[in-house]
Amino acid sequence: MRNIFLYIAVSGLIFSSCSRETSTSGKQTTTSEIATTDNTSQPEKVAQDLRKTSKDKVSSDIKWLSYDEAIKLSEKEPRKIFIDVYTDWCGWCKRMDRTTLKDDNVGKYINQYYYPVKVNAESQKKVTYKGKQMTEQELALNVFGATGYPTTVYLENDQTMLQAIPGYLEAEMLNKVLRYFGEDHYKTTSWEKFQASASDNITNSTKE
After folding, report:
1. Contact at 8 Å (CB) between 161 and 154?
2. How confident is the model at residue 110 (pLDDT cuts 50, 70, 90)?
3. pTM higher than 0.90 for the full model?
4. Rounded Cα–Cα distance for residues 167 and 19 (Å)
5. Among the listed residues 151, 147, 145, 144, the one whose alpha carbon sits nearest the alpha carbon of residue 168
6. For a FRET experiment, which of 112, 126, 155, 189 has its CA 20 to 30 Å from that of 201?
7. Whose CA is closest to 116, among 79, 171, 146, 88?
């Protein structure tokens, strides 16, 4: 049931994504490369940066972690995990990096409520998922079911997958989804009811 509601809500956005076929068609864009920080080598420092006492002091610059770092931090301080599944050749992934993931409200919310991770769907880098070692490619395809990019994935702190959403998302829609999972609304409220009042929730939270 949970997997159905967001596919319905963002069905029009699924076409705003890159598939594996796109990489061999020669139609991918050549926009700027995905920008990641070197904070991934300092997980404890990143965790301190993410823990802020005041909402207005939370940085809007997303502090990206590796998958294993996020899991390790979540074991010490439980928090949901936000995953951006991408490929190097995907134009929609690059666009989402430049726009949606640079949005101040999106960045601040992710830093406050999630451990943010980027997973390269074609990388052979090893990660550990629930005690099993696999590549990022295997994690993206076999665990998250990502075949189009970008795909955003939402995990509980114990790595239970809540939802994987394919396609480019505008900041307004991503804000709604982040809050739906980040504040546990999905446990008590249907997506339809939450979405109806989400704009008010977002507006009020940014004024606090």
Report:
1. yes
2. very high
3. no
4. 10
5. 151
6. 155
7. 79
